[in-house]
């Protein structure tokens, strides 16, 4: 009798995540304007071309990069540049040798942070709404997602924590993941939120993982890393990357900032799994962070995103069925409530077995030829929402908005 061979049942049960599945479907429909997937159209700026060709893609750099493994924490030069980023932008002092680590994008940094700060089967707090891959990562790592349900209005953390502060699952969690500026809603934590998160995590011994990959994408207010709040310095892990702000998702360079104990453990785990990041990509990342013209270019990107956001919020108005219960304050997404649009749909697009967001997304894809993501994938309290990206080409954004409003 031949023995059966099984695969990981948890991973086998996971399907392709929704935004990628919709993006893949839209790619097979050439006339569809794709607002479903967060691959920034912008970046890198043209002024980097000669610099990268000469100092990042030269034969000498290539040979240096491929003839040896990188150390587990990454290049010290790049870690110093990352520390300088926080000093120049936020006035924060970070030790590049002990408190910074380079990773394979922000996703690896999040996975390392979860593994280093929690035990198997322990809870990890994930707010609703939140980035859809957090929960998948937690489950794949054999931890338990614990939902923090935030109010639909401004989606404030301090009111949600106050309302659920006696929840035993929240109190017993090992870590909380906070995304600010946030995918999908564009929410940014305010001072009251950070005070509440600080008090709750300190009281219950919970690690704070602050995913700030959209850090520069703040509109009318200044983004602040969690490290700016002294009370949470010792239990905070900062996650960041080059993917979003610099428009370089394929570079796969991210970083983690934490205390020395966390960084040493994360570097050890990184060494077990990956050995080291791509040294040539580190060199390109270093050139980008060291280039003084990048600050002005980043500001231009934010101005463009904010203008698109304001235009969309104005044109996608209540008469068309869009409500802005979560006004975007940062990041590169739109997250309207489309209950009103659902009410206006022809009967054939309404399905009692599907959420409002799913029905509207299906209608928009086939009738308007615009691909969006239904809100239920970001949390149970977002079933009446859809997510749209702001980071497409001008042509795609303009055509999509025209189709949605006509």
Topology of this protein?
Elements: H1 9-12, H2 18-27, E1 33-34, H3 49-55, H4 59-66, H5 76-90, E2 100-103, H6 105-117, E3 123-128, H7 132-140, E4 144-149, H8 157-163, H9 168-171, E5 175-179, H10 191-204, E6 207-211, E7 236-241, E8 254-257, H11 260-273, H12 279-290, H13 294-315, E9 333-334, H14 339-344, H15 356-368, E10 370-371, E11 373-374, E12 386-389, H16 394-405
Short note summarizing the structure:
This protein has helices at 9-12, 18-27, 49-55, 59-66, 76-90, 105-117, 132-140, 157-163, 168-171, 191-204, 260-273, 279-290, 294-315, 339-344, 356-368, 394-405, and strands spanning 33-34, 100-103, 123-128, 144-149, 175-179, 207-211, 236-241, 254-257, 333-334, 370-371, 373-374, 386-389. It has 406 residues and is an alpha/beta fold.
Q: Could you describe the 3D structure shown?
A:
This protein has 406 residues and is of the alpha/beta class. Helix content is 42%, strand content 12%. The chain has a seven-stranded mixed sheet with strand order 2-8-7-6-5-3-4, sandwiched between helices. It has a three-stranded antiparallel sheet with strand order 9-12-11. A two-stranded parallel ribbon has the order 1-10. The longest helix has 22 residues, at 294-315.
